[in-house]
Write a structure and sequence with these properties.
The protein has 15 helices and 16 strands. By secondary structure, the protein is α+β, with helices and mostly antiparallel strands.
Length: about 500
């Protein structure tokens, strides 16, 4: 368990996260304005978003559908009746002076997800609720030396706020939780999870206490937009609170910002309670009432999610827990693996996807959708290994050339192998001849081996493979060498 060491002993850290996920939809939550990223300032703004007098919100059913699907993916209760409320506060980029959100009666209730721990275990994290709300606009402070500009493109964009229980107790668990939620959203296609564009961000509620003591006063670190920053903010804020408490001070419940440049949190405002926002049902929106049939139809259409896919990879395909976790962490990885693995050895395919392909892409700074090697092309290379046309060592050389050739190349693995004459030598007589030549050239080593220096066997294997330009079948080399060396 993660503990913060202070002068008076160890302190536990207790956390809950609020993840704000932008809903994938063509238009906003209550208007027909587009949601495309990168538009010119104030291009994606309807009269409703700008809070023009007399404009009434109309609920976007596509956003409702996405919220319900997400709730099902979080193993959560779907509330058939939910209510939109006005959350009153002032921001320059919030034209209405209130945010249409949900509080007492959200669309999704309690649920839970399982996260993978560093020690190989798992832990369940409770979900308190998921509610729909509209985003605010954006204040631009760097466009003019004396003025702040306002861009309302994001105003009214649909957000899902996913609130966890205070079940998270370390920076690593917080990171794993955000990764898991992000993975589920991306599998479902309800949020693209792009933290750089602000489509997924987290508020971290942090408190500290003596082991097994009562919960401490929490502070909320607002709008953290990367996993690294989430972990750094937790470490800093927990240490800050411990230092205050051990010096005899008290923690003030407040909202704080993470300053990535300085590596510290700083106070933004005192933390409001729910009654400070003066929530009340939005008079322009009727209660949202769903039917059991509507929810059941969405449940039937759900795709296989990460946990189920991971279990299947282990139980049916025989993959290790680690390999299954890596391959199912992102839907794109799982899709690539399954395409490459079709009618092939799952373990061999998993090894090549994880160790060779993902390793090469990471080194090149490429995403999987930019891979120069398509799943079918990798599958062809794996076939050549499986039928012993080439050895694993030669396969790596072929793979390197495939990476350089790119997806547009008409030369596949078989073409490369044929053009370069890389076919594996599987004729026992041919290998027997190479072994004999190596033993003759190293008669002194042969004598040493036969006198008891068994470790020299690896030397002979290397020499035979070198003499065959790496083409000799390793299994045949081993068996023939053993026989020849023992026949002296």
């Amino acid at each position: 368990m993660y503990r913060v060491k202070g002068q008076t002993g160890e302190w536990e850290v207790v956390m809950g996260l609020e993840i704000h996920a932008q809903v994938i939809s063509n238009s906003k939550l209550f208007s027909g304005a587009p949601t495309s990223f990168g538009a010119a300032p104030n291009d994606n703004v309807a009269l409703v978003d700008a809070a023009m007098p007399g404009m009434l919100p109309v609920l976007n059913e596509a956003c409702v559908r996405q919220a319900v699907r997400t709730g099902l993916g979080l193993n959560a209760e779907i509330n058939l009746t939910s209510i939109f409320e006005r959350k009153n506060y002032f921001y320059p980029d919030l034209p209405q002076g209130y945010q249409i959100s949900q509080f007492q009666f959200p669309i999704v209730g309690k649920g839970k997800i399982s996260i993978d721990l560093l020690d190989g275990g798992t832990k369940d994290i409770g979900i308190t609720r998921l509610h729909l709300e509209q985003d605010a606009g954006k204040s631009l402070h760097d466009q003019h030396p004396q003025k702040t500009f306002v861009d309302l493109n994001r105003a009214g964009v649909a957000l899902m706020e996913i609130v966890s229980e205070p079940d998270i107790s370390s920076p690593e668990e917080a990171s794993a939780y955000v990764k898991k939620v992000r993975s589920i959203l991306r599998y479902l296609g309800t949020c693209d999870g792009n933290m750089e564009e602000g489509n997924l961000r987290a508020d971290v509620n942090i408190s500290v206490r003596k082991p097994s003591g009562p919960l401490g006063t929490r502070c909320e670190v607002k709008n953290v937009n990367s996993l690294r920053f989430i972990m750094q903010a937790i470490e800093y804020e927990a240490a800050r609170q411990v230092e205050i408490l051990e010096s005899g001070g008290q923690i003030t419940q407040e909202t704080r910002l993470w300053d990535a440049a300085k590596g510290e949190t700083r106070a933004l405002r005192s933390k409001e309670e729910a009654h400070d926002y003066r929530y009340f049902p939005d008079p322009d929106l009727l209660p949202l009432v769903l039917t059991e049939a509507y929810v059941d139809n969405l449940r039937k259409d759900l795709i296989e999610l990460p946990d189920h896919k991971k279990a299947r990879y282990q139980d049916v395909l025989g993959l290790s827990a680690y390999d299954a976790a890596v391959l199912t962490a992102e839907k794109a990885r799982a899709d690539y693996f399954e395409a490459a693995c079709y009618d092939r050895d799952p373990k061999l395919t998993a090894s090549w996807v994880i160790n060779e392909l993902l390793g090469a892409l990471n080194k090149s700074g490429l995403d999987l959708d930019q891979s120069p090697v398509a799943p079918a092309a990798l599958g062809e290379l794996i076939d050549l290994i499986s039928d012993q046309t080439i050895s694993g060592k030669i396969a790596k050389d072929v793979f390197a050339e495939m990476l350089e050739s790119g997806p547009g190349s008409k030369r596949g693995a078989r073409d490369i192998v044929a053009a370069k004459g890389l076919q594996q030598i599987t004729d026992p007589a041919a290998i027997d001849k190479i072994v004999a030549e190596v033993m003759t050239a190293n008669a002194d080593k042969v004598a040493e081996y036969r006198s008891g220096k068994d470790k020299l066997f690896g030397f002979f294997v290397g020499q035979v493979l070198k003499a065959s330009a790496g083409k000799a079948n390793p299994d045949l080399v081993n068996s023939i060498l053993k026989k020849q060396l023992q026949n002296g």
